């Protein structure tokens, strides 16, 4: 009778423990309960239950700990020294426990580099990599998520994931049939390779590019977004890595995806192109030869805000590399599209990027500068430069663009409006162009007088030995002395003085 009673009491105790951890796991999943659970010091109660001999109690206790860490008690989980036991038990426990323990490690690591380092310090990365070697896809998914949370914080943590041998196993996850596992694996690979060229190279050496390139053709929008993010993170580091991505024949299929129904996919594709073309003339020519320019400019027309940013930057990088690529952007109506972006967007960062790209296009030759000038962009650039409400970055980019375009601009009709508002540092560049063109163009000289340009030049105050004064003198020398005197500000006073001094015959 006593033995039966003992068994009943033990069973009741086991049921009570299980009911307790199940209840705590349920309560911990809701944010509004976390503070009260913390005040009740529930983690101290869960710690021994996470080491319970009953697997179901262990797993549910780990799940409760994970929910609490996920809701902001990660630091408390570390202080209660729960992680080392979880990690130590992962190798010998079943798939349910491994999944729950991986969830705890992810919930802790996601919050900060310091908490991620705590996971690394207790051997969490090795345990998670071991989970990737198993067969259960759900365990692999949770382990890959946790590794991504660790790697994303900084290069040091990312290197710890690489050193544990995760890259090769994550690439194998890309080949698994489960769609969610493919997405998570691609995301974690992105988190690893985004920091340094060394880590990107480790991912490439593990064979990531070929399966990623194949998955870019998937019908699943979420997977495509992640794949292109990962390829961008690889490509951004160096020309050699970008070349490997291009050699995987991701193009021209990627160009067609600039018209994908999912706007995030379109942005990720544009970002990949931006990261590829920024490296070299050769890579830029490859992308242009795949017919990317037209679709990129069409993409700019069909989106707004930050979605435009990678395409704007891509056009600027293309134009940077050569006169011919800059002219290709012009012929594809890129300048007029950038002008619309400048007028339609209000965010300073996007305006600054647009101004930078315009500067890269117009800096090469008079023909390039004329394309910018005839789009009426020079007054706009000056306005942005002088506007006190413009951000420092926007002002700097506007000034830089003006200083690179104006020395090439020979379209005097576009330069004339700048005579009235430009500060001396910009005005000097404008007058320099007039002084170069007017001596050789009689029609331009006539228009300069009739449009009021010569009169405005006479009103400019400049120090006698300054570059500004030299340009004014050079302009005045293009006209008869009588005309110059006529448009001088003090000419009426001179005439009146002559009248006073005149003696009738």
Helix-strand layout with pairing:
Blueprint: H1 2-28, H2 34-39, H3 42-49, H4 55-79, H5 83-90, H6 95-109, H7 113-121, H8 124-132, H9 137-151, H10 155-163, H11 166-174, H12 179-193, H13 197-205, H14 209-215, H15 221-235, H16 239-247, H17 253-256, H18 263-277, H19 281-289, H20 293-301, H21 309-321, H22 323-331, H23 334-344, H24 348-362, H25 366-374, H26 377-386, H27 392-405, H28 412-415, H29 424-437, H30 442-450, H31 453-459, H32 467-476, H33 481-486, H34 491-501
Helix pairs in contact: 1-4, 3-4, 4-6, 5-6, 6-9, 8-9, 9-12, 11-12, 12-15, 14-15, 15-16, 15-18, 18-21, 21-22, 21-24, 23-24, 24-27, 26-27, 29-32
By DSSP (H or I, 4+ residues per run), the number of helices equals: 34
Mean pLDDT: 89
| Low-pLDDT stretches | none
What spatial form do the alpha-carbon principal axes imply? Answer: elongated
Q: What class, by secondary structure content?
A: mainly alpha
Q: What Rg, in angstroms, do the CA atoms define? A: 34 Å
Total beta-strand segments: 0
